[in-house]
């Protein structure tokens, strides 16, 4: 399993599946160094997550709910909301659960704006990789993210949707989240952005962008 993180909420899985692509310039980050993918998944149709038109792709799913099989992945889209008011402020949000044929599970929470119901936690529990927003303001904040992490117990965390130098969006930076997380912190940057999923059995790791 090969994961590359391109900042904000954008991640490339196995060089084939791209989730929440941004165009770089509109949010103050480098454009993702990607030319061609098979499938693009968009958690919600906002400008900082839906720049699929600038990439070459075979299929795209926006706010997808339900299940599909794609290559060696079973993909499930779970309905959630971008706010605490059932989407009345910012709309709906798809949580994507990608289960590989080898048993590996990746969960992308998109722009989740609320804590989850118990039946949803059961579907997400034990994720090998969890991508979770931590920047507050328009998503859950770091304290809410920590509560969700405690219930899902992922092996690897990739925090998303937070402020770093150059980012135009006034989100919270990652320091408080990282200071309160009992995971080994590994730093990456937007050029050296490969996530190593071969973590020792006894370890739990969070991959965070250099600030």
TrEMBL record:
Residues forming coiled coils: none
SUPFAM superfamilies assigned: Metallo-hydrolase/oxidoreductase
Record's protein name: Hydrolase
Originating species: Saccharolobus solfataricus (strain ATCC 35092 / DSM 1617 / JCM 11322 / P2) (Sulfolobus solfataricus)
């Amino acid at each position: 399993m090969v994961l590359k993180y391109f900042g904000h909420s954008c991640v490339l899985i196995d060089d084939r599946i791209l989730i929440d692509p941004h165009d770089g310039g509109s949010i103050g980050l480098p454009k993702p160094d990607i030319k061609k993918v098979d499938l693009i998944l968009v958690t919600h149709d906002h400008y900082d997550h839906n720049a699929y038109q600038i990439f070459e792709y075979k299929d795209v799913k926006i706010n997808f709910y339900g299940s599909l099989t794609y290559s060696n992945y079973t993909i499930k889209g779970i309905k959630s909301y971008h706010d605490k008011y059932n989407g009345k402020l910012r709309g709906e949000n798809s949580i994507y659960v990608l289960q590989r044929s080898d048993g590996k599970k990746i969960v992308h929470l998109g722009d989740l704006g609320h804590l989850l119901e118990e039946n949803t936690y059961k579907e997400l529990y034990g994720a090998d990789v969890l991508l979770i927003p931590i920047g507050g303001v328009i998503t859950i904040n770091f304290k809410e993210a920590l509560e969700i992490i405690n219930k899902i117990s992922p092996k690897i965390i990739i925090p998303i949707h937070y402020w770093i130098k150059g980012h135009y969006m006034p989100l919270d930076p990652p320091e408080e989240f990282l200071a309160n997380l009992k995971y080994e912190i590994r730093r990456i940057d937007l050029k050296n952005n490969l996530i190593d999923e071969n973590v020792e059995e006894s370890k739990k790791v969070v991959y965070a962008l250099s600030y």
